[in-house]
Specification:
The protein is α/β, with parallel strands linked by helices. Helices cover 33% and strands 20% of the residues. The protein has 18 helices and 26 strands. It has a six-stranded mixed β-sheet, with helices on one face. The longest helix is centred in the first third of the chain and has 19 residues, at 2-20. The protein is globular.
Length: 557
């Protein structure tokens, strides 16, 4: 009996001693300037990672206790360390495609526009379409919109369909119009416009829903090409420190490709996908609710459109455009009739799906807030995290409604310095002063989630941070900031780009800050964006990107 008691006591002592010893960390980053985005411990020098999670954050000395014989050490040499960036709004496969498609964004004339299309077309295999574009008519030295005739003159026998950079207008050559069945007699689709000449013939320009005619005849990429372009996008995201991506209205084939890459362990950024609201019934039948899935691939959000864009004159306003008084924009096809949109939103919300709605013009935003109110009345109060994507041109009275309904403003700061070149002349000072109103949102208690809308804007978080902090437009006309009262601080932008975006996808408990227990998604920057001059932020590079403690990018130069 005595021997048994002695053995039990010894066993307990040995067990207690073993439990008191910490397991060794797999990775420690030390000698760093860490901004954790965690209000309980904002600054730190070191972070320890075990598996794919953070286990300790603190001083170099505190975190060194987690060091073992096999712990990998990364000396940050005093560099700024942040949580990985979470881009709250991308069109990811389109972005991957754009890396190998024709690039027209910086074409300075219609002649250059046509020359680049011809050169790209000559490089493609026979019969392959010329796609991509991102053209910007506001950047042409001589104003003017492209037409089918300009393209026909250089590429008459290959399909050409190139989009404006906002994605709400495109131009096709005559061959594509013929394939799509678009001619003088073709009817308009709700929410779209076939731009016509004075004789009623299509010019080749198609706005919003009118592009659906072409999408129906455009060939689908092969599974191999889809995987190739997604991999190219993931490589770029890793280089830029984007560790999470929220993909808006991807087709099912893209989601299937993400699932295949996730199964292979090849997803180097985490995905939250939001297919179209029109497909919500498929998701509802599976019983999928918001944020369903794994740490690398989640779904349960749905995306829909209320209107178009300012640059294409299809953003929907209460009052007409100043430079196009015959229109105040277009309501998207999904909004016609509005009763159908209301029914779809209520059913999707009842199924537990998150609603993400593209709304840019003030009237479109007002209409969506009305519909959100209807959804709450129909289904009751709960934590549903409504999102308005872009939320660009606000009516004064709607800031308070945003806050009351708990709507997240999912915004893209780069658009402000891009559109700021021409907003005032299009809608006037009063409306422009409530455009990209980031500071006004915060003052009203509205949560911000920040993204880029890639490929509409660069995927680089440094470009977005620079835009939000400086509001210096791309044309150099506002070096002190376009409506500078709406600027954000670096800390506010980073918070919205990490914790804000994590909250927008119901993942603030798992990522968005450098906090013990959260995923070890971490970036090391070349310079301290909190210390350098704001106009230099856009030149800062990512030196290392870690996803779940795994190094997915390291700059060599």
């Amino acid at each position: 009996m005595k021997t048994f008691l002695f053995s039990s006591t010894l066993l307990l002592a040995i067990s207690s001693s073993a439990m008191a010893q910490k397991p060794a960390a797999d990775l420690i980053i030390h000698h760093a300037k860490i901004w954790t985005v965690d209000s309980s411990k904002a600054q730190a020098q070191a972070v320890a990672v075990l598996g794919d999670k953070i286990v300790a954050v603190g001083t170099n000395q505190q975190v060194a206790l987690w060091r073992g014989s096999r712990t990998k050490m990364i000396d940050a040499h005093g560099k700024r360390v942040l949580p990985g960036f979470n881009d709250a709004h991308v069109h990811f496969a389109d972005g991957g495609n754009s890396l190998s498609e024709v690039e027209l964004k910086d074409s300075s004339s219609l002649q250059e526009f046509a020359r680049r299309i011809a050169a790209h077309g000559a490089s493609l295999p026979g019969g392959e379409w010329v796609l991509g574009g991102n053209w910007d008519d506001q950047a042409f030295t001589a104003p003017g919109l492209p037409t089918r005739q300009i393209i026909d003159a250089v590429v008459p026998e290959r399909p050409v369909f190139v989009t404006r950079y906002d994605g709400h207008m495109a131009v096709a050559n005559s061959l594509v119009l013929k394939l799509a069945g678009i001619d003088k007699q073709t009817p308009e689709l709700p929410g779209g416009e076939i731009v016509r000449d004075q004789d009623g013939n299509p010019t080749g320009l198609l706005k919003d829903a009118a592009m659906d005619y072409v999408f129906k005849v455009m060939p689908e990429p092969s599974p191999e090409k889809r995987l190739r372009t997604i991999r190219a996008g993931l490589q770029l995201a890793a280089q830029l420190g984007v560790t999470s991506l929220q993909d808006m209205n991807p087709p099912y084939a893209d989601i299937a490709a993400y699932a295949e890459l996730a199964e292979r362990g090849e997803l180097s950024s985490r995905m939250y996908v939001a297919p179209m609201l029109l497909q919500a019934e498929d998701i509802r039948k599976l019983g999928i609710r918001h944020a369903f899935g794994s740490d690398f691939l989640r779904m349960g959000a749905v995306k829909t459109y209320a209107d178009g864009s300012l640059g294409s004159s299809t953003a929907y306003f209460h009052e007409p455009y100043l430079d196009a008084p015959q229109t105040r924009g277009l309501l998207a096809g999904e909004m016609q009739p509005i009763e159908g949109m209301r029914e779809r939103m209520i059913l999707a919300d009842k199924a537990g799906l998150q609603l993400c709605v593209h709304a840019i013009g003030d009237d479109a935003i007002s209409a969506i807030l009305d519909l959100f109110e209807d959804v709450v009345k129909a289904n009751g109060e709960r934590d549903r995290r409504f999102r308005i994507e872009h939320a660009q041109h606000m009516a004064e009275q709607d800031f308070a409604r945003f806050a009351k309904l708990g709507v997240i403003a999912s915004v893209q700061p780069y658009h402000a310095i891009d559109d700021g070149r021409f907003v005032d002349k299009r809608i006037g000072h009063a409306r422009a002063s409530r455009t990209y109103a980031f500071r006004s949102f915060l003052k009203h208690g509205v949560k911000l989630a920040i993204g880029t809308d890639w490929t509409v804007a660069p995927l680089d978080p440094m470009s977005a941070i620079h835009a939000a902090v400086t509001r210096a437009t791309l044309d150099g006309q506002y070096p002190q900031g376009w409506y500078p009262e709406q600027k954000l601080t670096v800390a506010e932008v980073v918070q919205a780009y990490t914790m804000g975006s994590a909250y927008a996808e119901f993942q603030e408990h798992l990522k968005g800050s450098i906090t013990p227990g959260k995923l070890a998604d971490i970036v090391i920057l070349s310079q301290d964006i909190f210390k350098i001059a704001p106009d230099q932020i856009k030149h800062v590079k990512v030196e290392k990107t870690l996803v779940g403690g795994k190094l997915v990018f390291e700059r060599k130069d």
